[in-house]
Amino acid sequence: MPASVRRRPAAGTGFHFEADNLKSDGYDSADPASAAVDFRHLRSVRTVDGVSTWLLIFSFFAAVLLYVHTVSNTLPPAVTVDNAAAGQFVEERARKTLNELTAFGPRPVGSKANEELTVDYLITELTQIRSQMNVNMHSLDIDVQRVSGTFTIDFFGPFTSIYENVNNVVAKLCPKHGSNDSLLVNCHYDTVFKSAGM
Questions:
Q1: What is the pTM of this model?
Q2: What is the mean pLDDT of each run of 10 residues along the chain (198 residues)?
Q3: Any alpha helices (H) in the chain, and if so which ranges?
């Protein structure tokens, strides 16, 4: 009776030997050249998988870049002062106003830049708006308040802030025929010390 031989393949080779004929996937297990051919096949499969992964990543970023380029070139043209419709917001005009305000420099509360120069500038701008608007449809009231008071800030501990003769510029735009709705918009035009004026 012929002897039966079982061999265990090395870990990671992927070979499975049959009990008696020592064959695996058509390769002769006793032939080292066949095993080398199979290892080359496994290496080529892994290389193809690596190339496919990098190709997929490159394709994704190329698609994102193409999308961003397409969107940035299909945006509507910028609205300028020359081509703006009546009442339309124009960044160019807003930028001019911002540049003129920041030219005063830092505007801490109580400084000449904040209490005089900026207040005069805002009053001039509001007066110009009032002269250009349709007075049959709207009215624009302009007022400068000079206020004093105190308030407590709890999260700093027992801290009380006191202000005196601080200017508030108030503009009230009203429709001539009345309205049931109202909108309050407020902001501060002062800055901290040593700021760039923004």
A1: 0.57
A2: 56 51 48 54 60 88 94 82 86 91 90 93 94 89 92 79 89 88 89 77
A3: 32-73, 91-102, 112, 118-132
